[in-house]
Amino acid sequence: MASVIPFVYDVMLIAGMVLIGWFAIGIIVPSISKLARVSLSFLVGAGISSWSIFILGWIGVPIRWSWMLGWMLFMLIAGGWLNYRARQSNKAHLTSGSWSRDSCWSHVAIGVILALAFCYLGYISAGRSYSTFDALSMWAPKGYGIAHEGSLWGAVEWGNHKLDYPLHIQLLIAMFRIFSRDVIPGSKLIFPLFFISYLFFTFDYLRRRAMGDLLALAITLITATVPLFVLHATIGYANLAMAAYLIPGLLWLLEGVFTENSRAQILGSMLLGFTVWTIIEGVLYVGAGLAALVLAYLIVRKGKIRWFSALVPLLVVGGAWLLFYMLYAAQESQAVSAFDQMWLAIRTGQVDFSDIRLILGYARRNIFEVSTWGYLFPTGLVIIVLGLRQLMPRQNPYGFSLTLVVCSLAALSLGLFYLRSFAIEGLYDLLVRGFPRGFMSPAMLFVILFGSVLSGILSRVSLLLGVKE
After folding, report:
1. Is residue 95 part of a domain?
2. What string of DSSP letters covers 45-75?
3. Would residue 13 count as lying in a domain?
4. Residue ranges in the chain modelled with pLDDT below 70
5. Distance of alpha carbon 282 from its chain centroid, rounded?
6. Using an 8 Å Cβ cutoff, are 34 and 19 in contact?
7. Domain that residue 80 falls in
8. How confident is the model at residue 103, as a pLDDT?
9. Burial annotation 61-96 (CB, 10 A radius, 16+ → b, else e)
10. 301: in domain
11. How far apart (Å, rounded) are the C-alpha atoms in residues 151 and 136?
């Protein structure tokens, strides 16, 4: 009975975040479909909650139970009212455009499957508590330190790396610590929630790209059974959380550009801001993804980038943390030191090609390890080879753009290991420890890419069979 009350507090806190996200999305894109809104509600709500508390803490507001409860209630009330006003002002357009509802059975099926998956993963995640190195050395102790000190500066003395990393995950953990003492620990539930949210997004995205419900469900289930993804839904690392923001952010931005929808671009930009707010590598992944999107736009010449909508939310959310980082952490940052060493080596012609060959060779072998990736890459590569014509810029500008983004994220993931080789000795050991999680974002987007190609292949086959008949 003693653990029931803290669990109720945990559930109420999660529900509050989801509602905040639900309202915020309705304000930004009033005509969004319910399933798309569900897929992003926790991501947006968690991001808004932790980022706003970060800003309040930075200006000196104490991070205490009373202040936090009052702020959460204010966001709920204000968000509900603004969402109502947005809905009323856009009533004539709520069921128009690309956000229309689809068949009910698929919604029910994916809801039941992912609810069961969350219960299973949540049980494992909470049951193993914080028991892995990064979770024990950085995420959890910094969250507890902030809660204990009632200040952002609690993160300086508690855990490793001082203020080198964004405080998104740490502040979420602090919220659970403040509201329920994190007895269960309920804060471990956020990690399966990031994964489940991404799975909802994958299903919704694929079905909105004219893929049948059954095929979209099958691709989602393939994603849900990749061993590495399942592991990271339970161990308490930030790589999966970053991917859960990065990929929806890039794809909503891409869709907003192609449809010339400024509201979709605002939503995508905000999600990219939360990517920067989640982990230190986020700014590089966002930069690589945006560079690929701009290059694709220049090549295919389709749609329109609303620069204000596409950049301002990202600059506000991500820029606030980057300013904080430059003021309080950059001088002692390992990442900045490694980049300086790499840049000096490249400028003086000291490029270590043996390290580059080692990284590429390890990547080639690792992506075919069934115990890590399942059959994700062998299956996906075969499908992409069969449907390669669908990725040409003239035939399929959207598929071509998506391919550029995947390649850009993959190249960055490999390049980051080369960067780290200047700061950490033992490159092979670093690859063994970190390559799978470092390659997670391009791998998760790769699933969506080959799912889209598979849909095109099946459509062509159906058309050919129809002609023969």
Report:
1. no
2. HHHHHHHHHHHHHHTT----HHHHHHHHHHH
3. yes
4. 1-3, 92-103, 210, 332-350, 466-469
5. 9
6. no
7. 1-87+104-237
8. 61
9. eebeeebbeebbeebbeebeeebeebeeeeeeeeee
10. no
11. 20
